[in-house]
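Our collaborator T.R. sent over the components below with a one-line note: 'Predict the complex.' Nothing else. No constraints on interfaces, no templates requested, no preferences about which chain binds where. So this is a plain run: every listed entity goes in together, and whatever single assembly comes back becomes the starting point for the next discussion.
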Amino acid sequence: MIEHLPLLPILLPLLAGILLLLSTEARHGTRALLALGATLAQLAVALMLLAGTEGGFPPAGPDGIGVYALGNWPAPHGIVLVTDRLATLMLALTATLGLTTLIYALARWERAGSHFLPLFQFLLMGLNGAFLTGDLFNLFVFFEILLAASYGLALHGSEAPRVKAGLHYIVVNLVASLLFLIAAALIYGVTGTLNMAELALVVPRLDADARALFELGAFLLGIVFLVKAGAWPLNFWLPATYAAASAPVGAVFAILTKVGVYALLRFSILFGQDVAPAPFKGDWLFYCGLATIAVGTLGVLATQKLDRLAGFMVVVSSGTLLATFGFTGTTLTGPALYYLASSVLGSAAFFMLIEMAERNRAAAADLLAISFEAFGLQERHESEHPDEMSGVAIPAAMAFLGLAFFSCAAILSGLPPLSGFVAKFALLKAAIAAPPLAPALHAALLFTALLLSGLAGLIALSRLGIRVFWDSERPAPRLQWLEAGPVGGLVLLCFALAFGAGPAMAWFEATASALHDPASYIGAVLPGVRP
Amino acid sequence: MEFVFALAIGVMSGSGIYLLLRPRTFQVIMGLSLLSYAVNLFIFGMGRLRSGAAPVLDTVRGADPALYTDPVPQALVLTAIVIGFAVTALLLVVLLAARGLTGTDHVDGREPERE
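Returned assembly:
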């Protein structure tokens, strides 16, 4: 029985989603319990699988890589699900994010439109499947499942800006899906296989003509993943869509870009670090990541609304990951994975937080505030009551929001003492130590980009934070425990990542070194044909 | 046969891309449909073009793989058609919603200003 565990992250949300679709919206309590139960079970399964890769119960297999053959058809003829450390880490992140955003959504947002709960489960199903699968075309199918669900979720609570941004998002992703199909077909046509492990074996043996065609397919594939990851210049849809989406949706979308990053990393290692086609490695990816950081940083500085700021923060974090994966050598992968976990948790908390903080605000207040700042104008209410009182009574909700905002700002811009700082520090340390192997110019560029993007994030966050939290004219927002809890939980997880940084970083380093040994992945999927 | 096939894919993707870049949502959706036809044909072609060969084994012909065409691309095409169809229908709904909410069929949700 227990060997079927890797299937559950796909089956659980599928069944829960179907049941939620069939039940009527009137039975609110039952539906909420069903969705919560399914997501909790996913978290438990993900944690068990994660423990399994460490030799826990049930053990995944040799080298900590578990392979589940669907329908018991062995690879490469059947589709396999592979649970290695990276895949189970992403599963656990998805389930954590899913659980917290679901609790948050149940408080209020779920009722803003119909079918939030089933769509949410289908999104989780697509994400889990995309992380688990070991087959190229199956990856496409799970991408489509998660995208189809995300189209519905992006439009949740349909208002004109949401529909407009959603339209762009859908068209861009549809074109990307068509490119994915061309790429998958081309790669199959040349290599005769869709199994990712067998691809890694076949590709080095291709002759020059076939190799050229394969590279063409791989280029297209890389472009698709870069679109998903939000790399410049393929990311103009991202800030608008994320800003327009409702808060819990924006929070769970924080991991959507990481699917692209995950796929890029997985394929670059399987194709072989030295011979992987351009979009997957090397200078090309490095400079693409730097450009993404630059564009994201400019956006962070220029934006005058918190929700767009959160969108640009996601762009910056994608850019950082791409640049580190493009960096020569493998020493940056461990810290990059730590950064990935920290930034996903931090940005999800941030998306939910800003919606709570922005609840009582007039539409154009931010814009006005920043124009006041820019032109040195005094605000009216400051000069009118010069000696009325000193200090403002801080209600508990405001205090919580302020503390959580400060923590998120510290995580996202990489300030001590939280996990963002640990991540950036480890990245910079690895980048400095790299130079004999990697060009010193790259290390310097990465150094500058990381520090500047952190500084820009800090400036923008403190500027907008001052306007939001020190505005005495605004009534304190009313919060529910259901809404404050998830944000607090995510922030606490980041605290845990920071205070357990030693063991956590060691684990991420081990994950990276296991990942950079494609032979064990191939050997686990295709036993008997060790390269 | 290969030439006609390639020409058909080329013409369809060319017109699809042209339509995709047009400013009206209806043109965009037509462009996407044409592109997806082209892509489906392309996947089909990746199994090599052969006439008179079936993808499914049958007892009359025997088990020699040389007598059959590659079944995998045909399965992929089926999946791709179904997914493409569903997502296009979804896009159509969004397009109608956008038309209803903004009152225009321009992809940016507002008419360009004319001098």
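Summary for T.R.: DSSP finds three helices and no strands in chain B.
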